[in-house]
Specification:
The complex is a heterotrimer of chains A (298), B (512) and C (352). Chain A is mainly alpha-helical and 298 residues long. Chain A has one domain: ABC transporter involved in vitamin B12 uptake, BtuC (Orthogonal Bundle). Helix content of chain A is 74%, strand content 3%. A two-stranded antiparallel ribbon of chain A has the order 1-2. Chain A is globular and about 60 Å long. With 512 residues, chain B is an alpha/beta fold. Chain B has three domains: 162 residues, Rossmann fold; 80 residues, no CATH class; 183 residues, 3-Layer(aba) Sandwich (Rossmann fold). Chain B is globular. Chain C has a domain of 212 residues. A two-stranded antiparallel sheet of chain C has the order 1-2. The radius of gyration of chain C is 21 Å and the shape is globular. The chains are: A mainly alpha (298), B alpha/beta (512), C mainly alpha (352).
């Protein structure tokens, strides 16, 4: 394989991973922009979504139904969590929200563990998704194409929602100036709920695809992608919707290229590199690519 | 002449396009008490932040006894001998009062060394006892020794102010910067504070630089006053000289020039009123606090239906707080707010907007990343009738033709005057019965101020009741029918606008 | 009250008596739980120093315990096993062992060095960002342990650590930790640290070097975590990367929050509750027959209970059991005399 082909292969893999991170990052970024909190439970909501989608796939349902089940479950879970735990704590100290989200994360992981088992699971193999796809020396599977395709569609939908609908306008206003938005009569709790539902839904999409692409799902499979999603949001600029997508793609490319081009011994540290990048970004350019600096420094 | 102890030499600093300080120069002599005054946004706090190292100036020098302070960390500057109190106190809320003051000794005591600390040697214990004793002594001289073991966060405001003062005094600074020390204090309390500051100044002989809005306070305490506006030096002299300075008076009170046509309209509408109309909004005995800081005490006003009511007063008087309370942004501690006879005190923002009380906030608060059109649409967010929204949009563009051509431009890129138009327009989109305008003239050039106020008259003529808060009292009283003067959170004067303007004590209310 | 002055001495005597009793009456299983309790207290108090008193909410504490633990273990590891199990080290290390206490201290130092390296860039970040950055440290350390197999035996874990820990060493170091933290908190440094936590801008105005104060506290916190890690390794005789993962982060946070941030007493209480409570739940987790009912194995029940407690605490009593107060006889007696809690006297304005 020529080195160009290798490069293109890594590029494609990185883009696919990047879009997954982007989907996860959007919800995290928007929530942080509004509430100034990192939702550590975001990744676990994603996991919950795919775990509900699993039995649906085992029953033989067609893929769109499985996907919808996953999205619905994640959205509902996200909605319940924000309504019962985060909204009541909206005026609390930073630490309180942070700890609460850690608590929710722990809870979700172990409830799913209790109801299922620690054995890794995978969705019912879908021949269409598994079918390989070749583009000039670059090997992908259909699932990868679906990921990119659906991610782009989702991002466009969110963009459309934010730009051209009234609630979208309200959300953008809230993110820019919460106080002034309140003066317009925008109801903050309702908008916060919309924000969470939207973010969780997108995470649900990512979750189902993670299930199909990687298999090997455990109740703990959601947390780390969730935190990595946050790193992506930071890279792109916390609080910024386009930033989340761009940040996700950058992180995906970074991770794949580091693993691909470093010697094996160093490549195994892939998760560590992600956080190393986070610390670097926070030091050099804490506002990321599109974000606002004042949110970061103590 | 002896060398100044603190010197600012042509200090300039720029925040996101706004020139906060513009070639400001200042010299403080050893042991003097100097006042620094200026209207809202004139750069006083910024000057303090530059001196204490929290902001780095883009050009200019700051020197303490000849030594440059530029580039030093804030704690290093403190070590050089500059102390500071804060307008919003910034006490260490989770620590006791005496611990707050003991922290003030951080610089003036040598650390006893880690071993002594860890083994609690007699040296260490003696040291701690010394620090404690000194702190208690300061607390006693400020008459708050009884609160020594109380948690600093939960005390009455007046006590907290003294803790802040104690914390800075105990460090025995060469220069002490006091940031609005009289803010939120009653007349009695501020007289006490004045005596206290004089006493402490006599005892410790430090140099004081005082930022304050309360002109009585500043005039009585300071030997010299420096006045600034728009970050630039305005005037300097004794309190009497500065008070009489025309530039200072204009900076505070503004000029009351509006077009002849508008003037005629104003004269017509006020002369056709035979009887004062019933109040559309009434505020009764309102008390508002920000945490422990009292902003309004027992304020009662009435805004007539269909007329313009002006609320004027110096900075820190509570004008914005009053509008925030009426619009529902800030909940009142005590008192009632009535709208057309109904009590709306417990209503939230959303309900008030839906019912017709709309605020155009201080500083505009536009959404900078959104277009003019989107900002306007947000104003009508609550509107049920979407067709009415399009009509309202056109009405706003007719009222402010200057922004009609910029409807797709991002609001953050507009000029100050255009932004103010969008802000007013956005408030109008909600079809308000009562329009609350907070400092519409802020930061605008005089010709734009004229334009805005002429438009305000037009809006009033169409039947909307307006409550107008302005620092530029002259023009506000020119367009208004009735007026109230607020001073440190209380109403001190009230009456028909024309009469108020002519009164002798009106100028005094501003400049002491 | 003069009784308050003698409280530490009293507590120490009770502790010594209790330990002696435990040594002679408890079986090995319960002795180990007791040992874990002492280690948990050490970890919680040291974390609280940086997080509760210093305002630096760090999720990286397990990383420091891991570094200290592995360092100490590698140093005391028997020479006969070292070359075969952890061959990566230089020869002089492979052929020597270090006695227990120096090894522990070196482990603490290793953790401290890591704290300085990480803390210097990271401590200036705001709450949530600091939390994620330090969480990253935990991940980096864990991933490194798993992958540097020649130095740590990777995911398999380093077993065969000599059995040097006993209750006396553990509780001895625990008392040391509490003592040092207590002394520091009530000193010029402690006031500066708490001032930085409450309002770092105002602290600067009084001459406190914010960055340096934070770094010192963070490093000291890491030092004791490192020693705790070393004690852990020599108690359980095995160290695995799984012991220092996200779960450890959660438990650590839970212990500190439940007890109350900013209170040493709180940390002790929190650690006790979180160490003892799971012991009651674990039987249910394994499943079996209870009171005549057959219950299936409920995996993760302990964690669920901990999570629920955490969430409920945040909703209802975020300041924890002890809040920020320390134990005092005076308070206890006064509280038993007061029939009801006094209200703060400020009317609460409720918004719809």
């Amino acid at each position: 394989m020529s080195s160009l082909t290798v490069f293109l292969q890594q590029l494609s893999n990185g883009l696919v991973l990047g879009f997954l991170y982007g989907l996860i990052a959007i919800g995290l970024s928007m929530v942080y922009g509004l509430l100034r909190m990192i939702n550590f439970a975001h990744g676990d909501v994603l996991m919950l979504g795919v775990f509900v989608a699993l039995p649906v796939s085992w029953l033989g349902a067609p893929f769109p139904i499985v996907l919808l089940a996953g999205i619905a479950a994640a959205t509902v879970a996200g909605g319940i969590v924000q309504w019962t735990v985060y909204q009541p704590l909206i005026r609390s100290k930073d630490v309180t929200l942070l700890v609460a989200s850690l608590g929710v994360s722990l809870l979700l992981q172990n409830v799913v563990l209790m109801l299922t088992s620690p054995q890794p699971k995978r969705p019912e193999p879908n021949p269409f998704l598994d079918e390989p796809f070749q583009l000039g020396g670059v090997y992908l599977r259909n699932v990868d194409l679906m990921i990119v395709g659906l991610a782009i569609v989702s991002v466009l939908c969110v963009h459309f929602f934010l730009q051209y609908t009234r609630p979208g306008l309200a959300l953008r206003a809230l993110a820019q100036d919460l106080g002034a938005a309140r003066m317009m009569g925008i109801r903050v709790p309702r908008m916060v709920a919309v924000c969470f539902l939207l973010g969780s839904g997108l995470a649900g999409v990512a979750g189902v695809f993670i299930g199909y692409k990687y298999g090997h799902l455990t109740p703990y499979s959601g947390f780390l992608p969730g935190v990595k999603g946050f790193v992506a949001a930071v890279i792109g600029g916390i609080g910024s919707f386009p930033g989340a997508v761009v940040g996700g793609i950058i992180l995906g490319l970074l991770e794949v290229f580091l693993v691909g081009y470093l010697p094996d011994a160093l490549a195994q540290f892939r998760d560590g590199y992600v956080f190393f990048v986070l610390i670097l970004v926070l030091l050099i350019r804490p506002s990321g690519l599109f974000g606002k600096a004042e949110l970061v420094k103590a | 002449m002896p060398a100044p102890v603190l010197e600012l030499e042509r200090v300039s600093i720029n925040f996101g396009g706004v020139q906060a300080l513009d070639q400001l120069s200042l010299q403080l002599e050893d042991g003097e008490i100097r006042g620094l005054i200026g209207p809202n946004g004139s750069g006083k706090s910024t000057a303090f932040n530059v001196i204490t190292g929290l902001n780095k100036p883009s050009s200019g020098e700051v020197r303490l006894n000849g030594r440059s302070l530029i580039g030093l960390r804030p704690d290093q500057i403190a070590a050089c001998g500059i102390g500071r109190t804060f307008q919003n106190l910034r006490l260490f809320g989770a620590m006791t009062v005496i611990e707050n003051v003991m922290l003030g000794t951080h610089l003036s005591t040598q650390p006893t060394g880690s071993l002594a600390t860890l083994f609690s040697t007699p040296t260490f214990r003696q040291h701690e006892a010394d620090v404690r004793e000194r702190s208690l002594a300061i607390l006693e001289s400020l008459s708050i020794a009884d609160f020594a073991e109380e948690s600093a966060g939960n005390l009455p405001y007046g006590v907290q102010k003294r803790v802040d003062l104690a914390r800075s005094i105990i460090a025995k600074p060469k220069v002490l910067l006091l940031d609005e020390p009289a803010a939120g204090l009653t007349e009695h309390e501020s007289r006490q504070l004045m005596d206290l500051i004089r006493k402490v100044h006599d005892e410790f002989r430090f140099t004081l630089l005082l930022v304050e809005h309360d002109m009585h306070f500043v005039s009585n305490l300071c030997s010299l006053i420096t006045a600034i506006d728009f970050g630039k030096f305005l005037a300097e002299g004794t309190p009497a000289q500065v008070r009489a300075n025309e530039g200072v008076i204009t900076a505070y009170l503004g000029t009351g020039r509006i077009g002849d046509q508008a003037r005629r309209v104003a004269a017509e509408t006020s002369s056709t009123l035979t009887e004062p109309p019933g109040p559309v909004v009434a505020v009764q005995d309102l008390e508002v606090r920000y945490g422990a800081v009292p902003a309004l005490h027992g304020v009662s006003i009435e805004a007539g239906e269909g007329v313009i009511t002006a609320i004027v007063g110096a900075n820190g008087a509570g004008k914005t707080t009053l509008l925030s309370a009426i619009s529902g942004v800030v909940p009142p501690h005590k008192g009632a707010i009535l709208y057309r006879g109904r009590t709306i005190t417990r209503w939230n923002c959303e309900q008030r907007v839906a019912d017709g009380i709309v605020l155009c906030p201080e500083g505009r608060r536009l959404f900078p990343e959104m277009t003019v059109r989107e900002n306007l649409l947000l104003g009508s967010y609550k509107a049920q009738d979407r067709n009415g929204v399009t009509a309202a949009l056109e009405r706003v563009f007719t009222l402010f033709p200057r922004i009609a051509g910029r409807r797709n431009q991002r609001a953050g890129t507009l000029s100050g005057g255009e932004q103010q138009m969008v802000a007013i327009g956005r408030a109008l989109m909600a079809q308000p019965s009562v329009l609350l305008l907070d400092e519409p003239s802020l930061g605008l050039a005089p010709n734009l101020v004229e334009l805005i106020f002429e438009t305000i008259l037009q809006i009033s003529a169409s039947g909307t009741s307006i409550i107008l808060v302005e620092q530029n009292a002259s023009i506000a009283l020119e367009v208004a029918d009735h007026g109230y003067v607020l001073e440190t959170g209380k109403v001190t004067l009230a009456g028909k606008a024309a009469e108020l303007k002519a009164r002798q004590d009106f100028v005094e209310a501003y400049l002491g | 009250m003069s009784a308050q002055k003698y409280f530490p001495l009293l507590a120490l005597m009770v502790l010594i008596a209790g330990l002696w009793l435990a040594q002679h009456s408890l079986n090995a299983f319960y002795l180990q739980i007791l040992g874990l309790l002492g280690i948990n207290i050490m970890l919680t108090v040291s974390l609280n120093f940086a997080a509760g008193y210093g305002g630096m909410f760090s999720l990286g504490h397990p990383a420091f315990a891991a570094l200290g633990g592995y360092a100490a273990a590698v140093l005391t590891y028997p020479v006969t096993l070292k070359p075969s199990r952890i061959p990566g080290y230089p020869d002089w290390l492979l052929h020597h062992t270090v006695p227990f206490v120096p090894a522990l201290l070196i482990g603490g130092v290793v953790a401290s060095i890591a704290a300085v390296l990480v803390g210097w860039p990271v401590l200036r970040l705001r709450g949530h960002y600091l939390a994620v950055a330090t969480l990253g440290l935990t991940v980096i350390v864990q991933v490194s342990i798993v992958n540097l197999v020649d130095y740590t035996r990777g995911a398999l874990g380093l077993s065969g650590i000599p059995n040097h820990s006993n209750l006396w060493w553990i509780f001895g170091f625990m008392v040391l930790t509490i003592y040092v933290v207590y002394r520091l908190v009530n000193s010029r440094f402690g006031r500066a640290l708490r001032a930085v936590r409450d309002d770092y801008v105002a602290a600067q105005m009084s001459g406190v070097n914010v960055a340096r104060t934070r770094l010192i506290a963070f490093t000291i916190s890491a030092f004791f975590a490192g020693i705790a890690g070393g004690l852990l390794g020599h108690l359980l005789r095995i160290l695995t990367p799984g012991q220092f993962s996200f779960n450890a982060v959660f438990i650590g946070v839970a212990m500190m929050i439940l007890g109350g941030m900013g209170s040493i007493t709180g940390s002790v209480i929190g650690a006790i509750v979180m160490t003892i409570l799971p012991q009651f739940i674990i039987p249910f987790e394994r499943g079996g027959s209870f009171f005549g009912y057959e219950l299936p194995a409920l995996n993760g029940l302990t964690q669920i209970v901990i999570a629920l407690i955490l969430i409920l605490a945040m909703l209802v009593r975020p300041e924890g059991i002890a809040g920020s107060k320390e134990f005092s006889f005076r308070e206890m007696i006064a509280r038993s005399r007061r029939p009801m809690e006094q209200t703060s006297g400020r009317p609460a304005v409720k918004w719809k």
